[in-house]
Amino acid sequence: MERGGATRPAVRGPGRPLLTTVPLPAPPALPALLPSVFTRAFPASLLAALATVLLTAGCGPSGRTGTPAPSLPPPPSPSPSATASEDVCARIVTHWAREVLDGTAYGDYQSMGLSNGQYDILRDAVAAARPVREHRGAAAAHDVIGRHVREACAERHRAGGPDEGAWR
Fold first, then answer.
1. Domain regions of the chain by residue span
2. How does pLDDT run across 23-66, given as a tens digit for each residue?
3. Closest Cα partner for 121 from 81, 162, 83?
4. Which backbone phi and psi does 11 adopt, to 5 degrees?
């Protein structure tokens, strides 16, 4: 390119030479490459076992199918829940009801991780336990909470779970 009568070398940007393409050597043929790669990476016995599996599974070289592969066992059924939903309900609500009764809980039902329905159970249990605490002490009140919450959670989950939406 000429500029003001002077020629410049072909450059790309300040001081960077223009890149040219250089032909690359042809890659080795894939069939010739595979045996050397596999024999270095895997022992011959493993390769023979793999070839046997492939041939018996119907992946033979000439499109022929060998004996059919053995069928796999069905996947295991999902395991049952480790803890029943009513037990989870009872544990969580009992914990927070005792905290509320003792005056150490702070926050709303969402910060406690409870649903609206679980919070209703908590409020009823605490209301039932307060007079018992006044007359017979905290241990008796905690027993009332435990019984009340277990019964309410069992009733709530009797038909398989709450049916008024995810938050209930």
1. 85-156
2. 777 766 655 555 555 556 666 666 677 677 666 665 555 555 55
3. 162
4. -130, 160
